[in-house]
Amino acid sequence: MPRIKCTISYDGTGFSGYQVQPGKRTVQGELEKALEKMNKGTSIRVSASGRTDAGVHARGQVIHFDTTLEIEPARWHIALNSLLPDDIFVLSVDLAKPDFHARFDAVGKEYRYFLLLSKHRDPFQRNYAYQFQYELDHDAMRKASKQLLGTHDFTSFCSAKTEVEDRVRTLKEIDFYEENGFLVFRFVGDGFLYNMVRILVGTLLEVGTGRRAADSMLQLLANQDRTLAGKTAPGHGLYLWKVFYDEEVLAIRK
Amino acid sequence: MPRIKCTISYDGTGFSGYQVQPGKRTVQGELEKALEKMNKGTSIRVSASGRTDAGVHARGQVIHFDTTLEIEPARWHIALNSLLPDDIFVLSVDLAKPDFHARFDAVGKEYRYFLLLSKHRDPFQRNYAYQFQYELDHDAMRKASKQLLGTHDFTSFCSAKTEVEDRVRTLKEIDFYEENGFLVFRFVGDGFLYNMVRILVGTLLEVGTGRRAADSMLQLLANQDRTLAGKTAPGHGLYLWKVFYDEEVLAIRK
Lengths: 254, 254
Known about the structure:
Two copies of one chain form a homodimer.
Chain A lengths: L2 E8 L16 H12 L8 E2 L8 E10 L6 H11 L4 E9 L9 E12 L12 E3 L5 H11 L1 E4 L14 E12 L2 E8 L6 H13 L8 H7 L14 E8 L1 H4 L4
Parallel strand pairs in A: 3-10, 5-6
Antiparallel strand pairs in A: 1-3, 1-4, 2-3, 5-9, 5-10, 7-8, 8-9
Helix pairs in contact in A: 3-4
Keywords (chains A, B): Isomerase, Lyase, tRNA processing
Family (chains A, B): Belongs to the tRNA pseudouridine synthase TruA family.
Protein name (chains A, B): tRNA pseudouridine synthase A
């Protein structure tokens, strides 16, 4: 049965997160509703690279699903976008290998976090960036980022609710750049724990405002205690930017 | 009784337009609700430079109201912003002359219209710019704009529902610029009729795509017939950008 891979973008504002929940509007729910329409009422289960929380956005979420419909990727693209609501957009559609898995084959992810550098609320950014009015010491944040890079147990940087036992992850890149009044953090890693990016941002902001020492990250990691890290930054500044797969995994079956 | 002038910004997405309507969420309604709270339950009527339609945004709408409260402008600013919902923001507050009127004293307005130049929907821009996928001939649009500049009867460019009898207005500037994937139209004039900017945009887009001659604007104005102009462009691309007042009118009473 053909397996289809899609890269999708969504504005997380109107969703109770990615994952299906009874009675709630979710990204997965809307995707499965559109596919069910195309499939004449037969339900199709969609798998994603991972969940996103309520209010969190995606610029490059990856999903897959199986179908018996004999439709070319280009036509899937058009059909899905015509059936999906305005706040979800399918960026690309590919025919995948039959054993491709959006989640298990992912070898890395990139997240970005947008701060609106302003003393004032901006009604147009209220759902798309975290308004932050304090001066930030970029050197201090860069120093702290360096200590966070690499392979560590990130227990201190994940929600206490995390059920995953293995909390060792590799952070490959952390940087930030200013653009049009925003400060944008980039995080690339092999995988991220629940709330990990938002806690990393919250902690780096404490470093940037001088409330936490730039060279205290290794100790914080070693402590393996969530209560010692910074606040969880708000979800509406966060974007799942890209999901990485090995070339071989992606090679399309023809 | 002190008269207060405020410049405000709002995301029009969540409003049924500016003006109060029973049972609908409107900008004026939210402003008056906030003022009523400050005024311990006594209602205060707010006057604006003009209405905006459902979905239309503002970056520099001007309003005024009278108050018996003895509060400094800086404190009004903070208090109002703390009481207003996230999609309205007060940019500035001034003590006005007692006879200042946001609407009748306005000597001009600037509107901007945002086109998202893209073949694809962008979930993040769906409420903030009109997605437009066709090539536009800028020279043709510039020629047409020149014919529209100046003082004309704009009957062809206002909604047939317009009840105003005098449809003579002066367009002082029309131009457009590209920025970050958007084409932004700027319109400055002494006043604008109902739907006038959106019909101007719709007509210029027909010129830009070659469906209407660039030198046909004077004839179109002369015909004074709305049915001969272009379509009304969608409201969600439109921003009330600035309202102009004479310096003398603005001089603050101390």
